[in-house]
Structures are given as structure tokens and as C-alpha cells.
Write a structure and sequence with these properties.
The complex is a heterodimer of chains A (about 350) and B (about 250). With about 350 residues, chain A is an alpha+beta fold. Chain A folds into two domains: about 10-170 and about 305-335, no CATH class; about 180-300, Cyclophilin-like (Cyclophilin, Beta Barrel). Chain A has helices spanning about 40-50, 195-200, 275-280, 295-300, 305-310, 320-335; strands spanning about 10-15, 20, 60-65, 65-70, 75-80, 85-90, 90-95, 100, 105-115, 120-125, 155, 165-170, 180-185, 205-210, 215-220, 235, 240-245, 250-255, 260, 265-270, 285-290, 315. In chain A, a hairpin with a 2-residue loop joins strand 6 (about 85-90) and strand 7 (about 90-95). The longest helix of chain A is centred in the last third of the chain and has 14 residues, at about 320-335. Chain A is elongated. Mean pLDDT of chain A is about 90; it is low at about 325-340. Chain B has two domains: about 15-90, Gyrase A, domain 2; about 100-250, Cyclophilin, CATH 2.40.100. Chain B is globular. Chain B has helices at about 30-50, 75-85, 115-120, 125-135, 230-240, and strands spanning about 15, 20-25, 55-60, 60-65, 100-110, 140-145, 150-155, 170, 175-180, 185, 190-195, 195-200, 220-225, 245-250. In chain B, a hairpin with a 3-residue loop joins strand 1 (about 15) and strand 2. The longest helix of chain B has 17 residues, at about 30-50. With about 250 residues, chain B is an alpha+beta fold. The chains are: A alpha+beta (about 350), B alpha+beta (about 250). Chains A and B meet through helix 2, strand 16, strand 19, strand 20 and helix 4 of A and strand 1, strand 2, strand 3 and strand 4 of B.
């Protein structure tokens, strides 16, 4: 940013324990042992870019479980996506999955997630922290960047579309678990057919153990073990892999996963379904279903395609009867409607 | 279920990794030749990759390709890779250019290698013999992986074909040396691991503050020299470069 420009920034008054700047990550460094990283819920990241009508390289704040209290140094467009969180603008409820103005000096408070794990705060122009190897994504597991905390001030880029707010997106619910589609991976055939069938018939629950590297699941029943699993050569690993650790408990790898792993993997989750796992709160149930490559391709939308598709689904915050009903709900509670302007 | 899974058992084999990954696997056992093949094959993909390849990397005995399955249909990618496999005997390929030999001081055993005795025992060696085995050879950086800049080193003798632990060690420090399956790992971050920690260095393989954040490259060689705990602690205290007393020279 030029020194002759007025600095645009977000002032952080307080923040949850794991609030980090994220984008779509930095592919291209697996050969050096660095996984791509980036937003845990890529779908939510894309939704924010769509709501603000800006490029997919605009970084956002990812808030795990709890947001914080924020203020803008100058008028700024904002949008909130991902795990629904309680949001207020100067004390008044603010609609999720919609674009709004955060005027200079106003306080935006983002509370606990009511469902799901990762919520996202997007700003017009994106957060303008220093990139590392072409991305601003904090990679906690590798010590690239750090979580933000109270007292921080985060630079924000120039907004290409100032004033363009009041847009809303209706989003797919992916915050309460469900069925996750899985493709075969390198070691799938080391698990017997009976083990794979039992895997598909088992209900798994998210445990408290987990972070942006991966999440642990538990279940009732015998461990899922494969042939010779303590001597398998370490092999390339990607987000979405379902790894069976030494004791047979599944561990689903997320964007900050290691690039290689020695425990066998029973399958790899369809990238489009990975947000369901990332957004599963502690105790939420998940099941897995194997699909073919062809079936997977029919479901798959890359971030760019998703961006284009969602653009057509934007609608004004006020005109949709469903939304008006929502807003009336807010009115009953708060006695005033705020949140678009 | 059948028909869904990768079932090829002859090498080299091309295996799908979920929707957007393909692995070209030269062997399911670690060998110098399979590692050589993986490094050379990956370099060739980098030079000739069709549109739709997102990134490539290597593991011990495989080249990995991440791709966009919409731009590059899986059948087309498989065809490209299987044609490339036929172009030369990859297991005889030259090692990468600009390789370096690193000499890195390390403290083995005691508090800096709390599982040296366990590991030596599994290998059927005394701790002294084990240290000799780990410091005598020039070990190749077979691949960089798991964490940024983190080398897998090998190949140790057959005695060192020792399994991982069933459980995980809660935390080994940055710079730790751990053994399993005829290899050593030189950790570049604090991490839990199933490998047994036999020693420690003050070498930092990942330096995010530097213009060259990744110190080592696949194909580089490392020779450890055993130093006493006191000397190691002195290096630990004084080193600011991240080299931890290491020196390197080009391999001609």
C-alpha cells in the first residue's frame, strides 16, 4: 500500500482464541513439505467474496468458535459467512450471509457460533497482511503468521466497489454433520471389503480433539485396521484424507495437514463435502459413503465455478419475502431494524 | 465396492488420491532406485505438465500430482503419466542437479535422544553401535515432507527396519532426530510423532523469516557428527542462523 493513502484498517478490540487471516491457501509448496492451508470452509470463503462482489484472492478473518469485537478506521463493507454466529452492530442484530456497511467508529461484535465451527468476516478490499509465498493464509501448524488478538490493527486493501451493500445469499446448511462423500485413496484396498462396509455403516462423532490440521472422530466398535499398518511407508497426504491412527481411530485431515503421513488412509473426502467435517462441532455425527470418480465429478464445483454459480443467487436483502420475515423477527426482538444501508 | 478402489499391484503404478490427486508409485518398499525414480519423474512432470496440473511433489518412492479434474480429465492425466513412464528407465535416472552435502552436529542419546536405547534394542544393537550406524553414512534427503522443510533421510541398513510406536510421543522438539523403517526424520517443528527420538540438532530446516525458507532439497546429503550434550547446549545457546553448527559443500 502506498504511504500517500489513508490507511484503511480494522481495529481488533478483542478476539477469540483462534481468529486468523485466511484465503484459499498457497498450493505449490507441497514439495517443500508445506500443505496449501487456507480457509477451513472454502465454501464460506467463496460466499463472502460473492456477497462483496470481489476477487477470490481477498483475504478474510476465519473465526473458530468465537469472533470478537471489531471497529473500522473508515467506512467499510463487511459480510459474515460460515458457521452462524451472533452478530451485532452497535448493539443491533446484523444479518448473517449478507453484505453491510460498517461505518467508521461503529462496533461490530461477533459472538459464539450457534452451530458449526468456523465463521468468516469479510471486508471490502480484503485484509492486506504481508503475503508469504503468494498467500496471506496463516498456517498455524507451520508457524506462518499467528492468530490475531485484542489490540491488533489489521490493514485492509482498497475496495473496488465501495457502497455496494444490502446483498444476501441463501446458503446450504453444512453446520450439523450428515453424510460425507468419500473417494478411494492409495491405501483403501489395504482395508478388507468387510472393514470398508463397516466403515460406511458406522456413525462417527466429532471429538474435542481437532484444529485446522485435522479432527478426530470416535465411534462404537472395533478399530478400523489395515494390513501391516505400522510399517507402511510415509506417503503424500492431502486435506480430506481419512487416516486411521495406530489405535484405529479415524482422523480427518484439514487444510493445514502434514504433506506426508505414515498411517493408512481408508479414503479421501470429496473436497466439496470437506466443509461438513470442518464445521462439525464436538459431538456432531457424521457418516461416510463411497462414491466413484464419475459421481464425484458430477458433484464437484471448484471455487471459481462455485463463485460464478453463487453470483446468480444473490438477492437484495430487503426484497425476498423470506428475508422480510427474518427481519420482522429481528424487529420483534430488538424493536429496530438495522444492518443495511 | 470392487471396481472403486485402486487395485494395481505391479510397479510402477498410477493410483488415484481422492478427486484431485494422482500418485505414481514406484515401490511400496523403500529403495535407493525407487527414490531416484520418484525425484526424476517428478522433475520431468514439472517440465512437461499438461494444463490443469496444480502442483507436484515427491514422497519417498512416489511422485504426487495435484490437478483440477474439470480442466484435466483423470483419464487424460493417467494416459499422460503412463506414456511418460515409458520414455526412460526411471530407476536409473540421474539425481537432481545442485545437490549439497551437509555436515550437522547432533547429540545422540540421553536427554537429547530419550529413545535411543529402545531404538537400538529393536535394531539389535548396543547404543554405541547405533550411534556409529547413524553417523557413519552420508544419508540422502529422500524427500521433504510432513512439515515444511522436513527431510526424511535414508537409507539405513536392514537392522533399522524398526516399526513406528503404536502410540504417539506427545511432543518432540524442533531439530529432533527420530528413527523408523530404515529412515531418520529431522523435525522442523515441535510435533507429536510415532517415531522414536534418538538425538537432537540445532538445525532449523524451515526458516519462515528467510528469503530461502526451505534449507534442504530432495537429493541433498546429510552426515551427522555426534557431539557431547554440553557442546550441543552451547551451540543451542549461541546459534542464531538456524544452521546449528552445520556446514555444507556442493556435491560434484
Amino acid at each position: 500500500m502506498g504511504t500517500d493513502k489513508i490507511t484503511r484498517a480494522v481495529i481488533v478490540h478483542r478476539a477469540g482464541a483462534s481468529v486468523t487471516v485466511q484465503d484459499l491457501g498457497r498450493p505449490g509448496n507441497m514439495v517443500d513439505g508445506l500443505s496449501p492451508g487456507g480457509a477451513a470452509d472454502r465454501c464460506a470463503f467463496v460466499e463472502g467474496a460473492v456477497l462483496l462482489g470481489q476477487d477470490l484472492d481477498c483475504a478474510a478473518l476465519e473465526m473458530a468458535g468465537f469472533g470478537g469485537e471489531f471497529e473500522a478506521t473508515s467506512d467499510m463493507r463487511v459480510a459474515l459467512t460460515g458457521a452462524p454466529m451472533q452478530v451485532r452492530l452497535d448493539g443491533q442484530p446484523l444479518e448473517f450471509n449478507a453484505s453491510h456497511t460498517l461505518a467508521a467508529g461503529q462496533r461490530l461484535t461477533v459472538g459464539a457460533a450457534t452451530r458449526g465451527v468456523y465463521g468468516y468476516l469479510h471486508v471490502g478490499g480484503g485484509f492486506a497482511t504481508q503475503p508469504f509465498l503468494g498467500s496471506r493464509a496463516v498456517h498455524l501448524a507451520s508457524g506462518i503468521g499467528a492468530p490475531i488478538s485484542g489490540g491488533d490493527q489489521i490493514s485492509v486493501g482498497e475496495d473496488a466497489k465501495p457502497g455496494n451493500v444490502g446483498q444476501k445469499l441463501s446458503v446450504n446448511d453444512r453446520f450439523s454433520g450428515g453424510v460425507v462423500q468419500v473417494l478411494p485413496s492409495i491405501q483403501t484396498n489395504l482395508f478388507s471389503v468387510a472393514t470398508r462396509e463397516r466403515f460406511e455403516a458406522t456413525v462417527f462423532f466429532r471429538t474435542p480433539r481437532g484444529n485446522r490440521q485435522g479432527v478426530e472422530l470416535k465411534f462404537d466398535g472395533d478399530p478400523f485396521t489395515s494390513e501391516g499398518q505400522l510399517k507402511i511407508l510415509s506417503e503424500s497426504m492431502i486435506a480430506g484424507d481419512i487416516q486411521m491412527t495406530g489405535n484405529g481411530d479415524p482422523f480427518v485431515l484439514l487444510p493445514e495437514c502434514q504433506t506426508t503421513g505414515g498411517y493408512p488412509r481408508i479414503g479421501t473426502i470429496l473436497p466439496d463435502d470437506l466443509p461438513i467435517v470442518a464445521q462439525a462441532g464436538v459431538g456432531v455425527s457424521l457418516m461416510f459413503k463411497f462414491i466413484t470418480h464419475k459421481q464425484a465429478l458430477a458433484h464437484h464445483r471448484s471455487p471459481k465455478v462455485l463463485y460464478a454459480n453463487l453470483g446468480a443467487k444473490l438477492h437484495p436483502l430487503l426484497r425476498d419475502p423470506h428475508d422480510i420475515q427474518d427481519l420482522l423477527g429481528y424487529q420483534l426482538i430488538s424493536g429496530a431494524i438495522t444492518g443495511w444501508d | 465396492m470392487s471396481g472403486l478402489v485402486n487395485t494395481s499391484v505391479t510397479f510402477p503404478r498410477i493410483l488415484n488420491v481422492g478427486l484431485n490427486g494422482v500418485l505414481v508409485n514406484f515401490s511400496d518398499k523403500l529403495s535407493e532406485r525407487a527414490n531416484r525414480a520418484a525425484l526424476a519423474f517428478r522433475n520431468r512432470i514439472e517440465q512437461t505438465a499438461p494444463a490443469g496440473v496444480v502442483e507436484t511433489s515427491t514422497s519417498l518412492t512416489s511422485a504426487f500430482v495435484s490437478y483440477d479434474p474439470v480442466l484435466l480429465p483423470v483419464e487424460t492425466l493417467h494416459e499422460y503419466l503412463s506414456d511418460l513412464l515409458k520414455t526412460e528407465p526411471w530407476e536409473n535416472a540421474a539425481l537432481p542437479e545442485n545437490r549439497r552435502l551437509w555436515r550437522i552436529p547432533a547429540a545422540f542419546g540421553g536427554k537429547f535422544g530419550p529413545q535411543l536405547n529402545d531404538a537400538a534394542n529393536l535394531a539389535g544393537l548396543t547404543p554405541e553401535m547405533a550411534i556409529k550406524d547413524l553417523t557413519a553414512p552420508r544419508l540422502r534427503v529422500l524427500t521433504i515432507g510432513f512439515a515444511p522443510g522436513q527431510p526424511y533421510l535414508g537409507t539405513l541398513g536392514e537392522a533399522w527396519n524398526i516399526p513406528r510406536q503404536t502410540g504417539l510421543t506427545k511432543q518432540v522438539p524442533n531439530g529432533a532426530i527420530a528413527a523408523a523403517i530404515r529412515q531418520l526424520v529431522l523435525f522442523t517443528a515441535e510435533t507429536p510423532t510415532g517415531w522414536r527420538q534418538v538425538g537432537q540438532t540445532a538445525f532449523r530446516g524451515f526458516r519462515p523469516e528467510s528469503n530461502t525458507p526451505f534449507a534442504l532439497r530432495p537429493g541433498d546429503e546429510i552426515q551427522f557428527s555426534h557431539i557431547e550434550a554440553g557442546e550441543f547446549e552451547k551451540i543451542q545457546r549461541q546459534d542464531e542462523s538456524g544452521d546449528g553448527g552445520a556446514q555444507w559443500e556442493p556435491i560434484k
